[in-house]
Amino acid sequence: MKKNVIIIGAGHAGIQSAASLREEGFEGSICIFSEDADFPYQKPPLSKGYLDGSQQKNSIMFRSEAWYENNQVELKLGELVDKVDVSQNTVYATSGVYTFDFLVFATGAYNRELPIPIKGTDQPLYLRTMKDADYLKVALDQENVQDILVIGGGFIGLEIAAYAAKSGKKVTVVEYQPRLMQRVLPPMLSEHFAAKHKAYGVDLRMGVGVQALNQDSRWTASLSTGETVAADQVVVGIGVLPSQNLAEQAGIKCSNGIEVNEFCETSVTGVFAIGDCALHPNPFAGGGMVRLESVQNAVDQAKVIASTICGKPTSYHQVPWFWTHQYNLKLQMAGLSEGYDQLIVRGDVEGDKFSVFYFKNNQLIAVDSINKPADHLQARKWIQASYTPDVQKLSDDSIKLNEC
To answer: What are this entry's molecular-function GO terms (predicted)?
Structure first.
């Protein structure tokens, strides 16, 4: 009798799971549940190309409708899963009760909300779905909207700030940490991005919290400094939290995410978790448990669970990589730089074409590249192979990178 797989979530992790299962020869039924009623789409472009109009709706879809039909992948869109009973291998959804042989949590993450008093008829804007992006674009593009307040100096907040600033809006960014993107970047790169935002007229308020939001005819934000900022629209991007409630309620072990082993299997046999919701052992974090919010992680973990379900278990061992695009700065990140004790800068910093190489205990652990895609690809190969280049050669720009 053929086995069946239920996947909860239709983001990168969920759709890649279905694709990889078929590529691995899985012949059983595959059903994907998604709370989002829109046809499955990529989320990273929502704050980049989709927001600025360079990418249209059809260009950010994962697959065509024909692909799902041809590969016998059933989509249940706009369908909420209320409960999972792992003792009975059962999923309770809006349309009924479904049984599974294998279950995949690809539930992603949800926006962290402002824990402050908010008064007014409207709410600040958040970005997570295509509907959010459509609404955000209309809201920001209105002629009577000139002053934009962005709360949060991470990837999403800054990508939205860059779009608004390039559109001629007056933008203020308020960030609680003393630096932009502090969680993932060293001071040098934080300062490089800060300088670019300032060049476009963005008012950066660093090390500052928002204590209250009030809306009358306009928004007024009360800051921890005692100052206020007035705005026509407020956008919030202060990070995300793993969507783990379903798993937690099912008795599956969770902490900062749904805990999994090196095969992305949870504390319950035959139940997997992948992507933004999964807390996993990562060899590029010294084997420590981490939760990564990236396309790479979602896609590669999906391939791991497909192999395991098809009887060919393969442990997860892929270099993490990420990217952000702000103005003319395309930052590509390979590896995890936390805990570095040495860095080397290579390239033209003033010309916005350079890379930063991070070392820990004389081992290359990460590389951040701005407008240097070849450096990024080389870095991924080196880190995957645990290769460390010659530091003296690396410090000499006249020596080609692949000769270091």
So the answer is: oxidoreductase activity, acting on NAD(P)H
